[in-house]
Amino acid sequence: MHQRLGQLEEQNQQINPQIQEQLAEIKEAIAPIITLTQKITYLEQISQKINARMIESAQNFNNQIDSVNQRLENLEINEQEINPQIQQQFAEIKYAISHIDNIYDFFAKLKKQETENQSPPSVQTQYRKERIFQQEEKTNIGEDNQTKSNQKTSETEKPQTPKSPVPNIVKNEIEQTIETAKNDIQQGKREIEEEVKKLGESLNNLFKP
Prior knowledge:
Layout: H1 2-11, H2 17-76, H3 84-115, H4 121-147, H5 167-206
């Protein structure tokens, strides 16, 4: 378009000053549009790079989980012959992995609801209940391995849900729940690393001459 305007200017050297002024105004109006288009293109490129990195990170994490699962399957072959302490560590590692999988499921549901502009309290309430249940389940794993008792707590604390959240509250609730899920994922990863370390030490002690 700039080239076309330049040609018009060359062809119309004899045009009166009013038309020349209009051409200048058109060029001035077009300039910010071109700049804005360039910025949009740049932002789209950055967004694609960020999405690619997120996908790569998620895939790497999934590969790590698969690797841990495979190791557990290999170790479970002789699980019946291993002492109760190591069996408890097996149970805790399995719990941590399942906990992370559940967090990812809730995280995906929250992102979907945020995209569809749906009200989130039901999913948030379910997520909180699940966290309470899993905390109780983790406690019960330790109790079962120490006392050989199948007793489990049946009462769960009901989380409070907002009665009529305004848009800002809804957004804050989503962000807070997502942040909590991220923290839980990191905690789960640390638990897995710690339990795998303990398991390795126990196996080394088990097979010492």
